[in-house]
């Protein structure tokens, strides 16, 4: 294997500013060479780290100064197809600061802010993520649903596919953390494109944001009642929906995955499928020390109870999870639990973490399996 670019640079010590300028301009940051990723930082500081959430890599990942220059670097293994979100942390004297990589223009966004993105060889953003001018666009309709269960007006956004026709009947997709899926996973664009490409059948989706997700999502009876006894009947009455369980799907990521499963458990047979992305399905095999903090107490109680007496609450489950996130072990462990009930499970992993672009990238696989269009049938 050819020597790494940063090692060839070290052979040219001492380094002057113009030499470093040309190096950074030529290679950018991070430098991807085979399964090696080299992170750089340039500045007069005392220490530099890469901060990330990749399970298995040291966090923080320390950089070393190259000679007496102001260029710092660290090289780590990054397998093919990987995608990692990270930030830079520096120390100068007693001052610490954390920010996105100033040498890397590629950013990912979430409700918590933005992060820099490192994409390994083999990772590609799916084509159906970007706006396609040839794809007919569906519409989003904002509504306020009066909920007795939640004791408030609940805002929702209803997606109607292009060429929406009341003479037809459509399946229903209920999306937890709906506003975030629209903003950070480009889900309206994804639906428009997948329908246009005939990968999925036209469907109606309702995007539901929580008010307090840590309270309402981990097996919360009022939330489940709102979805099952208020929202679904209301939409079924007002829109031309296929009124059968097979045509109804609940989906969500992280705590939203728990909300989807727990709603289906509370109302078995009402929904035909689940789409669970990095679901926070944390459990304990002995005792109750799960290490997740108080927010996970109701999650663990719910999942432990389901594992003790698993039941088939839907027909099919699509699950995805990133191998670089702490939830990979609970998700892998739940697959056989679900399958032993007779539910059909399709499970997929990616070299990614607990983030919105990972969930976005899996939407094509999940939706086309649960709502296959004519093009999908051709290939399968």
Instruction: Give the integer mean of the pLDDT values.
Output: 95
Query: Radius of gyration over alpha carbons?
Result: 23 Å
- Determine the structural class based on helices, strands and strand pairing: alpha/beta
Q: Counting H and I runs of at least 4 residues, what is the number of helices?
A: 11
Low-confidence stretches: none
| CATH superfamily membership of the largest domain | Alpha/Beta hydrolase fold, catalytic domain
CATH topology of the largest domain: Rossmann fold
Largest sheet: 8 strands, mixed
Question: What's the number of domains?
Answer: 2
CATH architecture title of the largest domain: 3-Layer(aba) Sandwich
General shape: globular
Distance between the termini: 39 Å
Strand content: 25-35%
Query: Could you give the order of strands across the largest sheet?
Result: 11-12-14-13-15-16-17-18
Give the fraction of residues assigned to helices.
Answer: 25-40%
Number of strands: 18
Can you tell me the CATH class of the largest domain?
Answer: Alpha Beta
Secondary-structure element string: HHEEEEEEEEEEEEEHHEHHEHEHEHEHH
Structural account:
InterPro entries: AB_hydrolase_fold, Esterase-like, Ig-like_fold, Ig_E-set, Mycobacterial_A85_antigen. This is Esterase. One of its GO terms (biological process) is carbohydrate metabolic process. Pfam families: Esterase. This protein is an alpha/beta fold and 380 residues long. It has two domains: 115 residues, Sandwich (Immunoglobulin-like), CATH 2.60.40.10; 253 residues, Alpha/Beta hydrolase fold, catalytic domain (Rossmann fold), CATH 3.40.50.1820. The protein has eleven helices and 18 strands. The protein has an eight-stranded mixed beta sheet, with helices on both faces. Strands 3, 4, 7, 8, 9 and 10 form a six-stranded antiparallel beta sheet that branches. It has a four-stranded antiparallel beta sheet with strand order 1-2-6-5, with no helix packed on it. Strand 3 and strand 4 form a beta hairpin. Helix 6 packs across helix 7. The protein is globular, with a radius of gyration of 23 Å. The protein starts with a helix and ends with a helix. The mean pLDDT is 95.
